[in-house]
Amino acid sequence: MSTIASGEVKPNSTEPDRTWKCNVCGFIFKGASPPAECPQCSSTGREYSELTEREKYRYDGKNFDVLLINGSSHRSNNTGYMIDLVEEVLRERGVSYRRYNLNEFQINHCWCCYSMRDNACTYPCRDQLDDMSAFHEMIVASKAVIVGSPINWNNMSARLKDFLDRTTCLQNLYLLRKPGLTDGKIVGITVSGHEDGASKTAMDIYLYFQQMGYLLAPFGVSYRIHGAQFNTKTDSDYLKNDPLVTIKVKGMANNVVEMLKLDLEKKLKGKLAPVAE
């Protein structure tokens, strides 16, 4: 391969060039197809997308039941596999859903308007410069959210943290004594990892949703780790061949669906006392 520009690599090939971008680190690659491994961050070629002009993402307003969020930096790795299993359940159960891999979208850091004054944090969010406003609308429109995250330093991914921080404008409705838009909705959580921290990661995620009035489905957390004694390169094969992963993740997804059938959001509307911090 020969370097053609800062951050760009071009293979020695006579095939027509296309431009690819790694969704993990932003590396630009020119060639007929993406590299097998990103030369900058070592992600697999599955993390590459063809680079095209993109516009701000907008929600089309169509109703659906479950918002499915892959919060990993790697859309096609271990957490992505767990989200694939959730998708299988939702399709089998005839539940409408939309899946989003956060590394394909622009989600800015929270501006922390609330720290300036209470009513500076508003819904719709003051930051309308990225894709998050569409996700706010879909959170309000959907009946449930299922979130997947890897374990990063005993916590969720940085991408997912930014995403959840940006839900502050929805949680702040309660503090401003305005009608809530999320109370009584359902949440399910799945976590993958190499080492420990799965329970903490799941609870850290849940706390965001709890403060928005979400109900955690019974047995609504699934997780699986491999272990520090193994090379991380072996994690994917382990997870895909471990029957417990399928049992746990699909079980969690089924529990969310069963909760949806109870229509608790409608039954609890106006009956809950918001005590969000």
Sequence stretches where pLDDT stays below 50 over 5 or more residues: 1-6, 8-12
**What value does the Rg take, in angstroms?**
20 Å
General form? globular
The share of residues in extended strands comes to 15-25%
Distance between the termini: 54 Å
CATH topology assignment of the largest domain: Rossmann fold
Spell out the blueprint of helices and strands.
Elements: E1 2-5, E2 8-10, E3 18-22, E4 28-31, E5 48-50, E6 66-70, H1 78-92, E7 97-101, H2 132-141, E8 144-150, H3 158-165, H4 168-175, E9 186-193, H5 198-210, E10 215-225, H6 235-241, H7 243-261, H8 264-268
Parallel strand pairs: 2-4, 6-7, 6-8, 8-9, 9-10
Antiparallel strand pairs: 1-2, 3-4, 3-5
Q: What is the gist of this entry?
A:
By secondary structure, the chain is α/β, with parallel strands linked by helices.
